[in-house]
Amino acid sequence: MTGSTPTGTAPGGVAAVEAVWRIESARLVAGLARLTGDVGTAEELAQDALVAALEQWPSTGVPPNPGAWLMTTAKNRAVDGFRRDAVHRRAVERIGRDTPPVVDESEALDDALDDPVGDDVLRLLFTACHPALKREYRVALTLRCLTGLRTDEIARAFLVPESVAGQRISRAKKALRDRGVRFEMPGPAEVRSRLAGVLEVIYLVFNEGYSATAGDDWMRPALSTEALRLARLTAALAAQSLPTEPEAHGLAALLELTQSRAAARHDPDGRPVLLQHQDRRRWDRLLVRRGLTALARAHDAGGPIGPYTLQAAIAACHATAPSAEETDWARIAGLYDVLATAWPTPVVALNRAMAHGHAFGPGAGLALLDAVDTAALADYPQLPGVRGELLAMAGRHREAADRFAEAAALTRNEAERALFTERAETARGSA
């Protein structure tokens, strides 16, 4: 976060609290999970601290160290609860005439919070991705814990109603508690069973950071940076525990290559810039090299290639093309054909249509787009956005303008809305 708000002033009010929450929530929940040993309790304590911040900061201002404020508030609530439990426990023990020596629980809790050993966020990720949870439960829970996303934003990421997303989060926390799942890294034998869930969550967190679903910002760099860090850690862990598993390296490659374009995704005024119009001199060549190296490791691992490695191969085509005009769209279209078989999601089908439009003409792309499951993407702005792009490529500018306007109405991201609105105006001017 840039700067701090002096006590007694409150620029931004609730918005300032939400901005801090986005940055601090993952480490807050992870630290509290180490303290309590329970992910559900940790998330509830973090939410209590958020409520306290919402009550106080709009009038008092954001404190100089907001992350520490949230942690202290949550820790104090945990200590109070721990003491209440301890008082009850000692009363029972006295009745049973078997009272053990009293220990200072609050000091033990302080020591737990100050322990720097290990990576708490990675532990949180592997704990919440316990195989006892249904896939949709563990992904929803870890998205909430790692990103601080609201329930409605998680629902949008899943393309499900908000009530469904809320139920998944609640049931995930209850399932972990009922099964006595503790906050810890799994042993080598258990890493494989949790790896797919971990990779999926990292992927979704990165996507939310790279293209925010809602709000004023085109991107949330803190989320994509944290996801990239977690992908690197997970790939290193997989290299030790699962040397023939390619997908952890494939995901790392995908995120490195995608993140390499981050600086070029907006102009000096902060307005979004699409891939085909980006200044490739602004791409981070170190990240490109890291991505290509990780992609090579994925191929060298020897295991079955999956959706992350395939997407990384697509990203590599863009990263290695000298210019947008020299992009190997035929290869990209072929990779999307394989990806659509390995990972047959509506979003992949949408991207496949766009790739075929570039490779074989807009008519080919529109034909594939007509076969996409539009019901699953009813509120997804990229659906009319892609159709608008293909229609514009076909010279059908009036129809394209209508689709861009539809996309602008659907998106909840202000920067994306401005982009679609501009595309609609350009298409009308060309009609």
TrEMBL record:
Under the heading Gene3D superfamilies, the entry gives: 1.10.1740.10, Winged helix-like DNA-binding domain superfamily/Winged helix DNA-binding domain
DUF6596 domain residues are 194-299
Keyword field contains Transcription: yes
Q: For the RNA polymerase sigma factor 70 region 4 type domain, which residue ranges apply?
A: 125-176
- Does Transcription regulation appear among the keywords? yes
Q: Which InterPro entries match?
A: DUF6596, RNA_pol_sigma70_r2, RNA_pol_sigma70_r4_t2, RNA_pol_sigma_r2, RNA_pol_sigma_r3/r4-like, WH-like_DNA-bd_sf
RNA polymerase sigma-70 region domain spans which residues?
27-85
A Pfam family cross-referenced in the UniProt record is DUF6596
Q: Recite the UniProt keywords alphabetically.
A: Sigma factor, Transcription, Transcription regulation
State the superkingdom.
Bacteria
Q: Which family does it belong to?
A: Belongs to the sigma-70 factor family. ECF subfamily.
Recorded protein name is RNA polymerase subunit sigma-24
**Which organism was this protein described from?**
Pseudonocardia humida
Read off the lineage from the record: Bacteria, Bacillati, Actinomycetota, Actinomycetes, Pseudonocardiales
